Every structure is written in structure tokens, then in C-alpha cells.
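Below is how a single chain appears once it has passed through the pipeline. First comes the sequence as given, then the structure the pipeline wrote out for it. We keep one example in the README because the format questions we get most often are answered faster by looking than by reading.
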Amino acid sequence: MKDHGRTEASRLRTPRSLVEKAGAPASEEQLLEELYRLHGRVLFAFVLRLVDDRAKAEDVVQETMLRAWRNLESIDPRRGDPRSYLFTVAKNVVIDIWRAEQRRPRLVTDEEVLAAQPVEDRLDARVDAWMVDQALERLSSEHRAVVDHLYYGGSTVTETAEALGIPAGTVKSRAYYAVRVLRAAFEEMGMTR
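Resulting structure:
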């Protein structure tokens, strides 16, 4: 790998030593800028080969630099090249992103797969509800009251009889005739379910 004219000593200097040689103590911002100036392009090229997506590579480099900024004291040329530290951090960020993506459900974009999936059709339910309302309107108020209590209220025959103040036999009779009228109404409307 080409070093583009850098000597081993210049490549191993930390941003802190470079900035402090200019005469002023190095701020963290200056250190990070120098670190990015020295290693940013090479780091981006390395990450781009790992993720094969320019936007994601930029995000990884940004996260790598953020982690480097949080741990500036860890970057010591006596322990190794700062570039290798950055590459290791970047590789770990890529692994973290990959693991997170594996845990999340994937968005399916294949049109054939999407077309094969059953879709809840709310229109059918609305049409069915309208048809039931229309059929119920054909019942007398006495028959509709029995249907409401038995089928919609979940009441027993005895409870319905008590609530309406009629004998249980009358409840059964009205329920029977109401079901017949509803069935005929559904057949007229073409509802076969």
C-alpha cells in the first residue's frame, strides 16, 4: 500500500502532537479535525468497501469519528497507528449496524410477493354491515327487539323475555320468524354467506 511520501514517524503522530507543535494546546475540536484530515479519506474508502453504500459509509465514518472523539486519550502512537484504531472502530460500527439490521423486520419490495399476501378488505365488511342494516329494517319493531337482545346483546331467551316483558315462548317464536325474514332478505340481496 502506498504511503504517498509520508514517513513512518509522521504517520504515527497523534493529532494532539501535531496541533500542539503549532504552539497552542490542542482543543478536542482541533484534534478531531486533524484526525479526520489525516485519515478521513482512507477511512471512507475502507468503509465503502465494507458496506457498498455511499450514504451508509458516510454514516459509519461519522460514527467512527464520534467514537474517536469520545476516546481521544485512547489514540496513542506508542500503542500503534491511529489509523488502525480508526479502522477497528469502523469495522465494529459496521458489525453493529449489520446486527441491528438482522434484528429488524425487512421491508418487502418484491411486487409479486406483495400481491400474493392476503389483504384485509374493509370494503367487504362495510358492504356486509350495510346489507345487514337493510335486512334488519324489514323486521317489525317487536322482532328487531328480540334479535337485538339475543344476537347483539348476547342475552339468553329467559333474559330477553324478562327484559321485554313477554313469555319465553314468544321470544323463541319471534326469533324464529325474524331469522326467516332475514334469510329471505339476504337471498334477495345476493348475500350467500
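The first helix runs from residue 8 to 12.

See the next section for the split statistics.
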